[in-house]
Amino acid sequence: MEIKLEYTRKRSEFGRPCNFTDWPAEVTVDIQPDPSLADDFIPQDPVDFALQQAPEMALHEVNTERAQVSIQGMNHVEGGWPKHVDYQNPELTTRYREEVEREEVYTRSVQRLSSVRPCPDPPRKPSEHPRDAAMLSLQVMEHYIRQNNAIDIYEEYFEEEEEEEEEEEHPSAKTITVLSDPNVTKRMATHLCWHPDANRALAVAYCSLDFQDSRKDMSFDSYIWDLENPYNPELTLKPSSPVVTLEYNSKDWHHVLGGCYNGQIVLWDTRKGGLPAEMTPVEFSHRDPVYGVCWLPSRTGTECLSGSTDGQVLWWDIRKLLTPSERLILDISRQDQLQDALGAISLEFAASMPTKFLVGTEQGIIISCNRDAKSPPDKIANIFTGHVGAVYTVTRNPFFPKVFLSVGDWSARIWTEELLDSQSIMETKCHIPYMLDACWSPVKPAVFFTTKSDGTLDIWDFLFHQKEPSLSLKVSNDPLLSLCSQDNGRIISCGTRQGTVSLLEISPGLYTMRKNEKTVTSTMFEREARREKVLQDKHRERLLREEERARAKTEEQEDAQAVFKQAQADFFSIIKAERRRRGQ
User: Which of 121, 220, 285, 466 is the most buried if burial means most Cβ atoms within 10 Å?
Assistant: First the structure.
């Protein structure tokens, strides 16, 4: 039996206003006090009462709507660089300018633009000859250029007088966001890479580097995080093997290159999702984990290189990842023997030096390579020794490309390629915890960041302190394995052993360049390079003097033996002569 209740009401009665009327007060209940309950009452002194002054708002009033952002291309009809020209590469832009300036269209356009407005006082009347017309156009253009240069409206007359001494701000940093590994089984955040487009996203490579870590429930996924939504990853990258390193393509932002633990190179196209777009075959890939990948500047933007602990550096083209286009064996004896090669654990390539790259090895040696050399042994140009442990990071200074920073064992060292086969020109003190990663500040030439195994982030400014860091911050209780800075130098990202990525915002004094700071830093590097060169020359002179002394000592010993033998021969000859005389 089904029970129903139907309630019927007229539509006109829905939403009718409530009518209130005055009504006299009445007592509903009256409870008299009970004196026996006073014994159970405990007075409280003092009394704390919380009061909320902020207005209470509904959920829809607090949570604002997010703007939907879409990425699309732009067609530059006039202005802008062509697609095949990398505007960040000065060599390609200079070459393109020279090609345009040689075209007839460019010459005609300059002549047309220079004679658009008539000169108020032309030098002479134009003739019908093309050469005279061109000369008049140049004279008109020169007239307006001189007119623009006559008065500098931006000139500051009292710059020195108005310049005020800025107050020295104490260095500081604060954590703004924390990104956690979504998986239950935590892995290491082995590498970080910011999105080239205004650093709006962060790619994090998650992998366990522990030897024979065979946890069955460990995920292989890595993630791309949107900073506006730090709780859920924007894109999940699904490789066939854990990813050790990730790098964005600065020319095509949708391409992400990854190096896997099994030695493969993987390419993702973020427009197509998290599955790999291309992958190298296992038989033609590295035999050990790939610790470094770099994009190379080229017309197509499809060339890259990779380094691994198997002792090889391989060149690839993402249009054809079946086989490497070139191979280099890191044999410092230049015999090109794979069994004698050093394992690459870090890789550095800067667009400002397109023909050179640096390799940090497990044996503590830094190898400077030249990719334009004719034979593979000649590609190993210079060798820098000084670390007693693996070189986890090697990175060039963004302002002075010949100066580079390395981290290994318990210290960080600064080197210059102008001094070949020499020691570092500057170095930090030896710390008790192991140093694991480092990077330069992209906006201040003398500032760099280092991380240690005790979870500490150190910020160094060598213009002010060379023995102690300007700021030392305890970020985590776990070791900080990876480090990366935004292009503006304001936000630093640190990855821990447990897969947590902390984003820290540093104080303005650490990412604002002061007046003449670049010149002072260049002078400091040159001074330290000269000092190291003088010490190197004195060391060589001492070695030569020691060799000469050893050689002279050997000659003296040889002369003493010869004198002894000669004296012995003379002695016996005298005895024989005396015996003959007596016998006669």
Answer: 285
